[in-house]
Amino acid sequence: LPGLHVFAITFALEVSVGKTNTVMALNNSNVLLPCVFSTCIGFQDLVFTWYFNTTEMIYQGKIKNKASEPTIIWSNPRVEFVGDTTKKDNNISIILNSVEFSDAGKYTCHVKNPKEKNAQHSATIFLTVVHKMVETDNTVTLIIVGVVGGLIGLLILFMLVKRLVLFIIKKTQDGKKECLVSSSGNDNTENGLAGSKAEQKAPPKA
C-alpha cells in the first residue's frame, strides 16, 4: 500500500525542544531557544524555520546535507543561530538577543525535509520575560527547602535516637557478653584483636 508507506515516512522526521517547553528570561538578557531534529533516512535541502506566535518568521535556514553547515535564508537582526547540524544531534537552536517584555510568547521550530516526501514536523517553546526572578518562586523554594530540611532533620533525630537506644542496649548487653566471652576461650569476634584470645583465657570469675 503506497499510502501507508508515506504515512510511515512522515513520522520518521521528529523535532524536539527538550524535556521542558517553557523558558524564563530576564528582561534585556540573551536567551537560548533550543531545538533539535532527527530523521531516520537522512535529509537533503532541509529547511527549518523559527516562528514567533505562529505567524511571524524570525529565522529561516537551509541545510544541503549532513556534511554542510546551514545557510541563512532570512534572519531577524536580533536572532543568532547557535546550532550545529554536522554532529549527531542536528542542533538548530537560536539565541534571541536583548529580550524585551514584548518578546514573551510562543516560539515554534518548524522543519521540512524534501527527502522524506516533504515531511514536516514542529515543536513549540513558551517564553516568559520577567523584570527579575520572581519572589514567589523563592518563597515556594524556601517552603520546599524548609519541608525537606524538616524531614531530613526528623530523619537525623530518629537516627540519633535509634543510635542512642542501640548504644544503651549494647552497653547493657556488654555486661552479659563479658560473662559469655570469658567462659568461651576461642571466641575472638568481639574486637578481632590478636590479644583477644589471651584475654579471654583469663580464669572465669567466681
From TrEMBL:
Cellular compartment(s): Membrane
Disordered as annotated region, ranges: 178-206
InterPro entries (UniProt xref): Ig-like_dom (IPR007110), Ig-like_dom_sf (IPR036179), Ig-like_fold (IPR013783), Ig_sub (IPR003599), Ig_V-set (IPR013106), Myelin_P0-rel (IPR000920)
All copies of domain Ig-like, residue ranges: 2-126
Source species, domain of life: Eukaryota
One family name in Pfam for this protein: V-set
SMART domains tied to this protein: IG (SM00409)
GO CC annotation terms, alphabetical: voltage-gated sodium channel complex
Chief subcellular location: membrane
Transmembrane segment boundaries: 140-161
Polar residues: compositionally biased ranges: 181-191
SUPFAM superfamilies to which the protein is assigned, alphabetical: Immunoglobulin
GO biological process, one term: regulation of ventricular cardiac muscle cell membrane repolarization
Membrane topology: Single-pass type I membrane protein
Keyword Transmembrane: yes
A GO MF label: transmembrane transporter binding
UniProt keywords, alphabetically: Disulfide bond, Glycoprotein, Immunoglobulin domain, Membrane, Signal, Transmembrane, Transmembrane helix
Listed name of the protein: SCN4B protein
